[in-house]
Design a protein that fits this description.
- The structure is a single chain.
- The protein is of the alpha/beta class.
- The chain has four domains: about 1-195, Serine Threonine Protein Phosphatase 5, Tetratricopeptide repeat, CATH 1.25.40.10; about 420-530, no CATH class; about 535-675; about 685-900, Rossmann fold (3-Layer(aba) Sandwich).
- Strands 7-6-8-12-14-15 form a six-stranded mixed sheet, with helices on both faces. Strands 3-2-1-4-5 form a five-stranded mixed sheet, with helices on both faces.
- A hairpin with a 7-residue loop joins β9 and β10 (about 780).
- α19 runs antiparallel to α20 (about 405-425).
- It is globular.
- InterPro entries: CHAT_dom, TPR-like_helical_dom_sf, TPR_rpt.
- It comes from Halotia branconii CENA392.
- This is CHAT domain-containing protein.
Amino acid sequence: MSAIILLTTLSQIANPISLAAKPVNQISPPAIVRPQNSSNQQEQLNQGIKLYQEEQFSEAARIFQQAATAFKTAGDGLNEALTLNYLSLANQHLGRLSDAQAATNRSLALVQNQNGSKEYLSVRAQALNTQGKLQLAQGKAQLALKTWEEATKVYQKAGDQAGVIGSQINQTQALQTLGFYRRAQDTLENLENNLNQQPNSLLKVKGLLSLGNTWRVVGNTEQSQQVLEQAQKLAQELRSPQIVAETLLSLGNTYQALANNETRQNNQAEDFTQKALQTYSQVSETAASPTIKIQAQLNKLRLLIDKKQLSEVQKLWAQLPTEFEQLPLSRQKVYARINLAQSLIKLKQTDNTNNKDTQKLSANPSWLQVAQIVKVGVEEAKTLEDNRAQAYALGTLGSLYEKTAQFSEAEKLSEQAVQLAEGISASDIAYRWRWQLGRIYKATGNSAQAKGAYKQAINHLKSLRNDIASISRDVQFSFREEVEPVYREYVNLLLEGNPTPQNLEAATEVIDSLQVAELDNFFRRACLNAQPVNINNIDQQQNTAIIYPVILPNRLAVIVSLPSQSANKSERSYKLEFPKVDNAGNFVTKEILESTVEQVSQEISRPSGGDFLAGLQNLNSWLIEQPFQSDLQNVKNLAFILDGSLRNIPMATLYDGEKFLVEKDYNLVIVPGLQLLPTTAPLTAERLERQALVAGLSKLSEARKQEYQEKFGVSFSDLSNVEDEVKQIAEKVKVSNQQKLLNDDFKKSAVRRAVKSSALPVIHLATHGLFSSQAESTFIITSDGEVNVNELRSLLRNRETNQTEVIELLVLSACQTAKGDDRAALGIAGVAIQSGARSTLATLWSVTDDEAADVMVDFYNNLINEKMPKAEALRKAQANLLQTNRHPYYWAPYVLLGNWQ
């Protein structure tokens, strides 16, 4: 009678209409307690379970309610409790959270005074599992964790191993939501070890299957691959065709996630794509279950469309109508239809690009055919009385009318979808259709309503921070396609015409929220409790300009927030500029900007690089000269909130034709978003002495170098200057031997001991590391392994036991960004956030020459002896080195993130 409720959010938001996203909810079908003399009630309960398994949740809830009443009348409290538990689950699927809460409360009350029998223990454990699921859905992650921990104990008392596995997996979801990555990973690793010690059985296979899916969701795709391949092999040995098909389907999803990893080399990505296609083909050819078969076919179809293998698309598309007839009526069937419609929309959009191969498809569907598929889904959702599925179907139908410029009908359908979604508090659905309404209003010239719709869409997204951050990229969902554009399009709308100061300020707030959303997506969880920050509380000297470049759909916009020049110092002024690329008034487009950034970043990051001054001069013109050069008389600090690939360019290198920006009197800092800016007061220079950890690693074994080359496509050479750097900085900040870790002594355990033994406001790590747009590919290297960005919290600070510790400055002096990853510098912000440091000094590329040590020593001298603010200390150290070597390769890779004071 055990059920694992694997609480990923994949089926809720990552791609709510993707069958691939469906978690493995049960290790074994629920077994029913069979009391005497209750055959009618028992039949009702079994009927309800059957309907629930078929995802006919509304009818299942009705039957469960009847059965619960009948068991109550018969005085059968145990089965009443069990039935109420299922009723709660059905109501949760339907978005009826208050009804679900009432059923769960009643269920737990009935088994509160348990008699110790396995039956009572098992029902109580299931009710606790369901309560935890509800609490997490309500945003009460701490309560959910406590509830699932209790469920685990009760399952253990009942001797229910399947239940133990499921409740432990649930705990990892709560731990992830709370930000306790290390504990979540430890729980998963312990669970994996326990499963491996179990004898081979279907229970073990299903446990490994759930575990493999969970590893993928938390971003550890390689561990997911390993576990799922083990599960698949074991399922074949046990000769269980159904489980073989399920494990292969999950394995295909993991291969697709591996292929989507932006840091992988092209040949690796293609290899994983082919593996995914082959695996989906194998499932569709061998699966006995029509549901699993169509899952594989739909996943394969989308992948074929992405790869533009259009002849294969035609073959598969022709088979699908027949396959749909085999599916029973269920929410899953509705989602499958919408999934198919989305793939066909993408195919139609490929058609609109005049792709010759697409035009040759004899069976290329018309818009009418696609709409008919969705209309059937709408009617099926109505029959099921499933408001969630109906909201998806109606909104998708509205999107078809939008794409064919039938705006009146599109608006009506979208409004119906929004009403249904908001009626069941389904923000993951509502944001999509509010966004769609915003586009429709804009297209029909209703700017005010469009702004309102976009604002509501973003409010829904903010309420979903923890859910969006749990998104796995192994299905159709793409942050870049389905979240990021909402923010950019809203900013574009706010900046149209002659925007008011209020609209300019609102636009900066939206840009700031986009920065937070990007980091949430990077971590697959809410990275921090983002809070609005009053910049005047930090910029008390009124000498800081905040620069917001934002890449809009058709042009670059630059907003600058300037200190007030009026008597009211609390008010800041805002200026807007759309930089021009030439005297003819042509705007700087995304394509022009990214081409310039790519060319410049390649040239300045290698010592032999040449042709970069023209590009840097263009960037200076677009980001500073055109927008606000004349407004900088009273400005001392320039704080950049950078967008997209601009993060890969050190702002110090901007060039006006005579000087680099670092040669002027502006202190420079990168801010990952004002909402994430540490606001605590800086420590004095005296506090920084004798309270630092200085560590470094100068060499890697050839085996480790080869491993990193193969795994991440990065070449790590020896850092010959690191030993001198560590020695000189250790002397400069006067640390003890215990606070200096070099080469073999630089182990994770040694760092943890040093940090735990005393509060260390400065941590300096001179070691190789990689910054990437993927959290799993962002790490720093120690002598005994890597420290993943998600492990930094537990390694560098003991936040769970002492919330008052603050790292004033984290320095990573030999790291580099991943080549070919236009958002690799996002990893630097990720490291800064995870470390909890007020300020982080990092490198965009690794400099192996003596100049690196010179900059660092000079920086610390300025910081401690000269008592300069951190941004000024760095600027002067860089400017000093620039006097002897003007090539940016040597002095420019250093960037300061966070607080500049």
